[in-house]
Every structure is written in structure tokens, then in C-alpha cells.
Amino acid sequence: MAREFLSTREKAFQINLDPAKYGAFAEIGAGQEVARWFFRVGAAAGTIAKTISAYDMKVSDAIYGPCERYVSRQRLQTMLTYEYDLQHTRLHAQRGATTRFFVFANTVAARSYLRQDDAHGWMGIRFQTQPLAPPSDIIIHVRMLDRENLQQQEALGIMGVNLVHSALYLFGQPEVLVGALMDNLSAERIEVDMIKFSGPDFPRVDNRLMALQLVQQGLTNAAMFTADGEVVQAAEVLHKKAILVERGRFRPITRATADMLDCAWNEFRREPGVAGGDPLVLMEMTLKNLAEGGVIDHRDFLDRVDILGSLGRTVLISNYGEFYRLAGYLFRYTKNLIGIVLGVPTLHEIFEEKYYADLEGGILESFGRLFKNALKLYVYPSRDPATGALTTAENLRVAPHLRHLYLYLMENHCIQSLRDIHAEYLGIFSDDVLARIKRGDATWEDMVPPQVARMIKERRLFGHPG
User: Fold this and answer.
1) How far apart (Å, rounded) are the C-alpha atoms in residues 460 and 466?
2) Is residue 367 pLDDT above 90, yes or no?
3) Which of 50, 184, 263, 409 is positioned for an S-S bond with 418, CB 3.0–4.6 A?
4) CATH superfamily of 236-460
5) 105-131: average pLDDT
6) Where are the domains of the chain?
7) What CATH architecture is 8-205?
8) DSSP labels, 289-319
């Protein structure tokens, strides 16, 4: 069934005319852009119990308590809890039996005269789906991409109305709700890079799937969650960290996949600026790596991330086909060393000029973006199954006119061969392992790490016959 598309004005007015829904708005930073929509369209008395903007830090602390960072998930959740509890105390006896209460809150740092860096914010809603029912939450993190403050405020207001309307009318269709957040907006204006559903109305919602939906539906190019399945905003995890990334399908993780990461980790942790620090390992899957015949199987996706989670890995889902775009994303959050783990075939692909036809500067521009900050490629060798010849970063052949560029990157340690590899793993390929799993050939068990084999058998993953 197709969803009816409404303008921002129509959404706000529909809520204002619904006598069963009543709530409060608490907004910090960039003005009261969301509440303004409900006042602007008329009949706001039917919806708004209260609006507040605790703009001054001391005033905000007096109401919600002290906080390390005012534009943070912690501050947003404190606002939602305080305002909802206050509203419940004041209004429950009077109209609780007939009203679905809600509280909308945001805390935002928009572009201003003093602030020229990335504009971003947290917004959320705590709401009832039935009178007298316990509330549920939806929270999101947004990046505002307009260049002018007034435009950012406008986009923020539209996004807030979308969130309130979607929560109140589309809560039973989470995937549809995600898409509705971008109504009357575009990806050039605002990005939603984190969403979390919680509470009794979402017992079967897996927030990892919702993170995937953000990327699939074009609300963001990348979303992240930790090993325990907690969805996170990138800055919460990546801020000022040294980062080691391995891209792959992980279907399943093989001994070769694990060896690549282990060898790279041994090199990475000895790098200047990394040793003694707290580096982060990211396992990245692109939409292309997730799709099978152009379609993403959600159960298969969760099987893969469950295995990664069992290994303690943070997962990044992205729509960054080119490595320079992935690097640009990571450079937003850190200036420390970034390491990318890849095999020789992938390194050879990076030197294929056809992938950079959309860049004015072609392959040179792509490498300028890729290596503009501290970044290094750690390269795992490959063995020709027919001849047994070993190809490493040192003897890889690229197009003759790119050879000097390749040598320059090697000599400046932008590309480094991995050492101390397990040569016996070079003949292990995930497609072969997957085929053996499906046909019940037990030899696959020696081709994956023991804990991976155990999980595949216990849960009958990847078509395991059981």
C-alpha cells in the first residue's frame, strides 16, 4: 500500500487537528524551528501543551542537570525524560485516559557567526501509541549541510515535523517511517546518520536493520553499530581515533580474512602515533558487498553482523564504493592514522582509471583525496592457483604510465606489504567456503576460525543443512 505524501504544513496541521495527541516541545540551539511549524499552521492549542528553549547553558543545567556536551545523545535523552515525566505529572489525571502524550526534543549546533564547522544535532520523540500505555522512543542524529544558518534552521524544522508525524502515524512500519523522515527534504540539505527505536512498541525492531535502512534509502552514506548491536553516531566512536578498516563481504569470515586483519593490526599498532593509544578496528560492508542479485537479504545481513559481533567488531555499513570516499568520511572525525586492509586484487583495482571517470582530476584526484591526511594501505598477498606465483605489493604490475605513481606511493610508505602471513591461508576464498557449507562438505570447518565454525553450525547460518 502506497504511503500518502504530505507537505510539512499538512503534516503539522493533521497533528494539530487530532484531539488524541498532545505534547511538549523542548528545543536547544537554532531556535524553536519545529514548534514554530505547529504554531504557524493554526490550531496549535489542540497539540501543544508547552514549548521551551533553555538556550543559556546555566539555565539548561538548572533544568536538566550538568552535561559534558550540550549537543549530545546524553543531553537529548535527559531532556526527553525530564519533559515527559513533568508532562505526565501535570496532565495524566486530567486527560491521560483519552490522550496519547508525546514530547519532542532537540539539541542542535547550527552554523553561526562564531561556528563554521559541521552543523549537527540530536532530536528525538518519546510518545505513547495508546492512552495510558508506557512510552517508546525514537532518536536520530542529523548533519545539516546547507551553507546558511537560515536554511539549516528551515531544514531542521521540516525534519522535526517529519519525525513527530512519522512517530505518531507510522510507528507500526519502521522501514516506511525511515523513508518518511526525508519528506520535503533532500540528501544535499540534511543527513540522518543514526536512528534508534526503543520501548515496548518496538520489541521486534532490530536497530542494525534500521541502520542499514538509512543507507539503503539514501538518508546517509554510512551507518555504524558496535559489537553488541548498539547503533552509534560516528563521532561517538571515531573522534580522534587511529582507525584500522577491513572491507569485505564476510560471508563468512575465513581464516584468510582473519589473517589479513591480524597481520595488519600487528603493523598498525607499531606505527608512530598509534603505539600506546586506543586504536579502533572497523569492519566495513558496502551495499554492493551486501547485495545478492541486487537484493539485500536482511536475515543474511544479520547473520554476518552476528558473527562479526561475536568477534567483538564494530561494523560500518556504507555506500562508499571508492576508497577515497571512505577516507573522506573517516577524515571528518580524525586526523590520526587510518589504515585500510586489502588484498592485492583490490589494490590492482584501485589503479584502474575507469573507476574515476566522474572526477575532473581522474586517478590523480582520487589519490590526492585518499592520501591527503595520514592514511596507509596494508596489502595482503595473493597466490596464483595455476602457477603458485606469489604477488605482493612489491611486485604488483600496474599500467606502465602509472608505474611511477605507484613507486612514489610505495617509497613514501603509503602502501605497505603485510609480513608474517600464513601462506597456507592464501588458497581460502569465501565463495568456496560458502559453497562447501551449503552442500554439507565438512572441510569448510578448517577454513574458518573455530568460533565462526561453531556459530555457523549452532545457528545453521549461510544455508548450513544442520
Assistant:
1) 6
2) yes
3) 263
4) HUPs (3.40.50.620)
5) 87
6) 8-205, 236-460
7) Alpha-Beta Complex (3.90)
8) HH-BTTB--HHHHHHHHHHHHHTT-EEEEE-
